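FAQ
Q: What does a multi-component entry look like?
A: The components come first, one per line:
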Amino acid sequence: MSEPPADATGPQTLMIPLIEATGAITLPGELNGRSPRRPRRGKRLRVDWPACKGHALCSELVPERITLDEWGYPLIDDRPLRGAALDHAKKAVAACPTLALRLVDVTSR
Ligand code: SF4
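Then the predicted structure of the entire assembly, as tokens:
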């Protein structure tokens, strides 16, 4: 392969260093194989607030995703549930004494 002439000043010669310096494009490998536009699908926990009585049982069954506020009502981590967290969430939904906790399919970007 031949080297470009020492005095190469065409548009490509000028643009590539500019793009690299400004980060104007995403280079291969920077997304860790994920598309930035792919929706994050999955089951998420939702609370029916009028039905919730603050028993706090859910936070004991899904401690990795549910904490309690100062009055004992659940604060839900809204990330999609997978693996053991999803299993725990299903148990918490089944155990909620007022049927206030449920799992929903949500697609968000
Ligand atoms: S177990 Fe049900 S009623 Fe009790 S705090 Fe959790 S969601 Fe509310």
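Q: Is there any commentary attached?
A: Sometimes. For this entry: The chain has a mean pLDDT of 80.
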